[in-house]
Amino acid sequence: MESAYSKLWLDYKPLDIPFAGKVAVRCLKGVSRECAAVSELITSLSALLPQAELTFGADSAAVIIELDVAEYLSLEEYVITADERGAFISGGSETGLLYGVFAYVRELITEQGFTRLSKRVRPALPLRMLDHWDNADGSIERGYSGSSFFFKNNELIVSDRTVHYARLLASVGINAAAINNVNVRGAAVRLITKDYYRKLDMLSELLGRWGIKLYLCIDFSAPISVGGLTTADPLDPRVQSWWRDKAAELFSEVRNLGGFLVKADSEGQPGPYAYGRSHADGANMLARAIKPYGGRVIWRCFVYNCSQDWRDLRTDRACAGCNTFAPLDGRFDDNVSLQVKNGPMDFQIREPVHPLFGVMKNTSLTAEFQIAQEYTGQQLHVCCLIPMIKEILAFRTCNGRERDTVLDMIDGAAAVSNTGDSFCWTGSELAAANLYGFGRICSEPGLSAEDILEEWITLTFGRSEEVKEKLLYILLGSREAYENYTVPLGMGWMCKPNHHYGPDPWGYEFDRWGTYNRADRDAVGVDRGPEGTGYSELYYPPLSDMYSSPDTCPDELLLFFCRVPYTHILKSGKTLIQHIYDSHFEGYAQAEEFFRLWRSLDGSIDERTYRNGCDRFKEQLRCAAEWRDIVNAFFHRLSGIPDEQGRKLY
Ligand code: GCV
Asked: Is the model's pTM score more than 0.90?
């Protein structure tokens, strides 16, 4: 029977080498034969070397692979020394060893044989997390890959698919997963009750075998909704004691629980504000309840007024995160990490880096990315986010620290997951690159986007140079293309309201969400300088100065920070309006080229992937034409300025 899901990059095929000798696996001190590292190695070798004779512990073998746990390594670290005769793989724990095994197997595949290798890797970020926005009824908020594989009809599912999920995550070093939506709705409120303990425990044990901690999103008002109290005030002793008891029960029933992820006082979710308390009060209260069990609270900073009056030109949603959290720096307990979205708005194709990364010098931070492509084509458009994630992590905050990049300032990264129960997990096979890349970057941020993609392409599609070159071209160019044919120069929010797919330049203009472009017949963009909303002042100099003036603001963020006339001359020498027209034609042409290249791979990649890709590229082109024509017509009609090249603008 055909499997209901693809194995993605773990679908190992026999290596080209005709190896038929004996391969011995030896478990040295501290390594049990039952651990995931050993089973993974055996599974992989059986697939890669079907002719080989695999044994445990034999002395004479053509290839000997020794596995070891060593105290001198940190828990998730590994060392590999390998050559033609075998390998010595050592981990700081069985999880570190597992990462070493995956790294060794990757090498066997990319090098097609046993070669010399010497590698020592310690994952750069301690927390490498996937956040699922899955609802208990099986639907997924912003899900573009089918339904949930964690939940169905308010039941928790633990299946062979869950095992493969855990393998996929472990293979790229992801060590935490929050399985339910941050908007805690319906039956999910009861996840922290005995209704779910048995299944949660099974799931957490399964994930734990692969080095992954289970996190749950909780309802901040659970003392009321679950506990029957009349308040959820974090400073009320009854509430504190309720959470303490709940934590004791939960952590003893669910053995591999990592902690809680919390969206509070945001978009209708309950939080400490209802009781006049701060976010530090709220987060610390939970953190203290779960601290005895090693639990962590991941507390989101996506807090803003979502009922703004569009006529109000002073209030700026972009400032909200800093306004709320900057005064609380240093006031969070050490088992709280603040989860900060990569930009100050909401995962647009281009935003400045969130200023909180520079400001919160005394608080643990987790960077939040969204590989679910809510605003970036919903996995129907190809949009590889690996270069963007790398760009954000490398951003210098200029906060006076000797090491001042975002990567230096954070302890963790989380990605809103792009997975679902579709055959290929991510709706589009190409979107799986974002899942793979996210994990690899968190573990080894020094890898280039090309390195990561080459690895992923080889593991997923084999070693054809032609396939590799064409896919690299498509993936590496895809973000620029998407940005070109959609929203110009950092402005964001020209998408259709609610579902966020396709163009609607004024869809959010007269609404309550705080997301405006303020386009009129003369100018466009929001003045976020000191004379405007003041947002640019939330950065340290020289960034604050650079962003506040159209002369120094980087073009790609110009309309985020400045309000400029259509005749403003960009650094490229073009006028703003001409740039808008040109980039939209250019972006469409790039998408056409991607589809042409994809079609040329017919016969070189498997039929199912090829056909799925064709359907999606077709839709991408249709939608890109809509974006191009609607955005160009919008600005043409407002400004009355014709295209220098005389193209049709409608
Ligand atoms: C889970 C945006 C999305 C919401 C999401 C929210 C968040 O507003 O559109 O679907 O809610 O971000 O990150 O909490």
From this structure: yes
